[in-house]
Automatic annotation (TrEMBL):
<feature type="domain" description="Solute-binding protein family 5">
    <location>
        <begin position="89"/>
        <end position="438"/>
    </location>
</feature>
<keyword id="KW-0732">Signal</keyword>
<dbReference type="InterPro" id="IPR000914">
    <property type="entry name" value="SBP_5_dom"/>
</dbReference>
<dbReference type="Pfam" id="PF00496">
    <property type="entry name" value="SBP_bac_5"/>
</dbReference>
<protein>
    <submittedName>
        <fullName>ABC transporter substrate-binding protein</fullName>
    </submittedName>
</protein>
<dbReference type="InterPro" id="IPR039424">
    <property type="entry name" value="SBP_5"/>
</dbReference>
<feature type="signal peptide">
    <location>
        <begin position="1"/>
        <end position="32"/>
    </location>
</feature>
<dbReference type="InterPro" id="IPR030678">
    <property type="entry name" value="Peptide/Ni-bd"/>
</dbReference>
């Protein structure tokens, strides 16, 4: 079962907005629209985020809004990007592994500077990585645990070289170095502790100019000391928190903002040309039902299998998420982590087969299962819970939805008197190394809390563990076959019930070549 810290860092916090389509329509129609038709790009843009960052330190907050800001002002050794560019050099000139994979060498570009003009050397990289390594229980962190538990020591042989000694090979290290927590900070700033985060400095594309952390207003400008000296088309960013989704969309239409993030599915019908929809799949992103295996009802795999047969995933995607651009039906482990499959084979809803599975269980003649659902995080969560609740009535299962605030869900799950938990998850590191460690939770072998929300994997599935270990270092050609076998093994116990994939949704006044999101938090800007 997840601890409160695991729950906090497991899910990127996306506050839910309960707005009806009718109210949204009124809000949008009340706005003037001429400025929407003019999508000429100036050198200044305004981004409306959905929440006020609770911290600017990505090691203190795994929230979406913190991550989005960090990716703007933070400098990284490697690039966060799609496909073959993932993990390509940024501040690093090269990142190479020894033949046995137990030593990685990072060569820095020459002449690197932080945004305040001070020199960036290998000493700062060591301090930045040591800051993470020294964080209590970092090996058990759901996001960076797999890579950090693989690093034994970080040293600086000279001012432009960093050496990482590994406890085991981690082929995905270059991509892992681009994830939010890996931001490179000045050693002198780290030494200041909390005071540094009042106005942090790094070596990213932009620098923080003004910060109003109380109201969630920030201004950023192009970093004149960025290693890439090519002129930036966007020179200034106004970052504002607008917590109501209908208001964000209305401000976008009126021209008050240029980009509105995290727009829920029930407002997507209001997105009309020339506004453009920006959907970015979460790496490994999915909605599903985690299981309390100590619960006498949900702990019975026959009940889990019946639920899986009785849900209509296409309907969930259409009615709860706003269509398959936001979430597609998911029938198994969605690897590769791009959600591109090969997924488990699609199965149609089969009420007869579901009822047959319930014979001899506590649900044969009807039952009630407590479903813990977070109300103030990802907007998709309560909507999906409501649709599933209606669907399971067809087999006599009554889901008793227990709405729980995000800050309380960890303590609530530890109490143990629940059956299912509406789970959402996505991450940034898109490597098979990470995936293999996430499919099966086994801290003794360097794996984290598994993808399905329990630690370690319950019930014990040695076959699944062996396959997930093989996936860590599998070649691209071997991975699809392994994924198919993993899904076959997974279906034997169904340790969690997958429902749909999960994507980030934003709306812009400009086309995608001007601004778009990668991996749900990294904004690509000209």
């Amino acid at each position: 079962m997840m601890s409160i810290s695991q729950v906090r860092r497991r899910s990127r916090r996306l506050p839910v907005v309960a707005v009806t389509a009718a109210v949204a329509a009124l809000a949008l129609n009340a706005c003037s629209s001429p400025s929407v038709g003019s999508n000429a790009v100036s050198d200044e843009i305004t981004i409306a985020d959905h929440a006020i960052p609770q911290s600017l330190d990505p090691m203190s907050s795994a929230s979406y809004e913190t991550t989005q800001l960090t990716f703007l002002w933070g400098g990284y050794l490697t690039n966060y990007a799609d496909g073959k560019d993932s993990g390509s050099p940024q501040l690093a000139r090269s990142v190479t592994a020894s033949p046995d994979g137990l030593t990685w060498t990072v060569k820095l570009r020459s002449g690197l500077k932080f945004s305040d003009g001070s020199a960036l050397t290998s000493k700062d990289v060591v301090a930045s990585l040591d800051r993470i390594l020294s964080t209590p229980n970092v090996a058990g962190d759901n996001f960076i645990g797999p890579v950090m538990s693989s690093i034994k020591k970080v040293t600086a042989p000279d001012g432009h070289t960093v050496s990482l000694a590994m406890s085991r090979p981690y082929p995905g290290l270059p991509a892992a170095l681009s994830t939010p927590e890996m931001v490179i900070l000045p050693a002198s700033g780290i030494a200041k502790g909390d005071s540094f985060w009042k106005h942090p400095v790094s070596a990213g594309r932009f620098k923080l100019d003004t910060l109003d952390t109380t109201n969630g207003k920030f201004t950023l400008s192009a970093n004149p000391n960025y290693y890439d000296t090519a002129p930036r088309r966007i020179k200034k960013i106004n970052f504002v928190a607008v917590t109501d989704a209908a208001t964000r969309l209305a401000q976008l239409k009126s021209g008050q903002v240029d980009y509105a993030d995290n727009i829920p599915g029930n407002l997507l019908s209001q997105v009309k040309s020339p506004l453009t929809l920006d959907t970015a799949k979460w790496n490994g992103g999915q909605m599903g039902l985690s299981v309390n295996f100590n619960d006498p009802v949900a702990g019975d795999k026959r009940v889990r299998q019946a639920i899986s047969l009785a849900v209509n995933r296409q309907q969930i995607a259409a009615s709860a998420l706003g269509g398959e651009r936001v979430g597609r039906p998911l029938y198994g482990i969605p690897w590769n982590q791009d959600n591109d499959s090969p997924n488990a084979k699609a199965t149609k809803r089969d009420i007869g087969a579901a009822k047959a599975k319930l014979k001899g269980t506590k649900c044969e003649n009807g039952c009630t299962i407590p479903l813990v659902t977070v109300t103030d995080s990802a907007w998709q969560v309560p909507l999906v819970a409501q649709v599933v609740q209606q669907q399971l009535k067809a087999i006599g299962i009554r889901l008793e939805i227990e709405n729980t605030p995000f800050t309380q869900v960890g303590d609530r799950l530890k109490q143990g008197d629940w059956g299912l938990f509406t789970r959402w998850i996505g991450y940034y590191e898109n490597t098979r190394t990470y995936l293999g460690g996430y499919i099966y939770g086994d801290p003794t072998s360097g794996n984290n809390a598994n993808f399905w929300g329990t630690l370690p994997t319950t019930p014990d599935m040695p076959g699944l563990k062996a396959l997930s270990d093989r996936l860590k270092t599998a070649s691209s050609s071997a991975a699809p076959g392994l994924v198919e076998k993993i899904n076959e093994e997974y279906a034997k116990e169904l340790p969690s019930i997958p429902l749909t994939t999960l994507s980030y949704v934003g709306v812009s006044r400009f086309p995608g070549n001007v601004i778009h999101s990668v991996g749900a938090s990294y904004l690509v800007l000209p």
